[in-house]
Design goal:
This protein is mainly α. It has five helices and four strands; from the N terminus they run αββαααββα.
Length: 121
């Protein structure tokens, strides 16, 4: 089942808004950078990091950073986003391989275009 259409369009709009800086490897880097999936989390609940993860962004500690891997979207914030599609979008965001396909790094605008065009998301 595809995700909620209104949320998908809100997500695409947020990716195109220039409000978010893009990072890779983590949902958010704690310095204003987000992966495309981190933006999905943020538009639904600005307190999502503290609510779902036990993370310190202090470079001396880096506690819980492995929990923030690109594809670890909390289930409560997926809203119909298939985990396999989340993995693919994370790979496109980071410019890495998924299911035998190596993706070039996609900009937020390119990912927003996919969200608008693909029915399986």
């Amino acid at each position: 089942m595809p995700m909620d259409k209104a949320l998908k369009l809100k997500w695409a709009d947020a990716l195109e808004s220039d409000k978010y800086m893009q990072c890779s490897g983590l949902l958010t880097d704690g310095s204003g950078g987000y992966c495309c999936l981190g933006v999905l989390c943020d538009i639904q609940d600005p307190a999502w990091v503290d609510k779902y993860f036990h993370v310190s962004f202090d470079p001396e500690e880096e506690v819980g950073m492995e929990e923030m891997s690109t594809t670890t979207v909390p289930e409560e914030l997926r809203n119909g986003l298939d985990p396999a599609v989340a993995d693919e979008l994370g790979a496109r965001n980071d410019g890495c391989g998924y299911m035998g396909v190596t993706f070039p790094r996609h900009s937020f605008r390119e990912i927003a275009k996919l969200l608008r065009e693909r029915e399986d998301i």
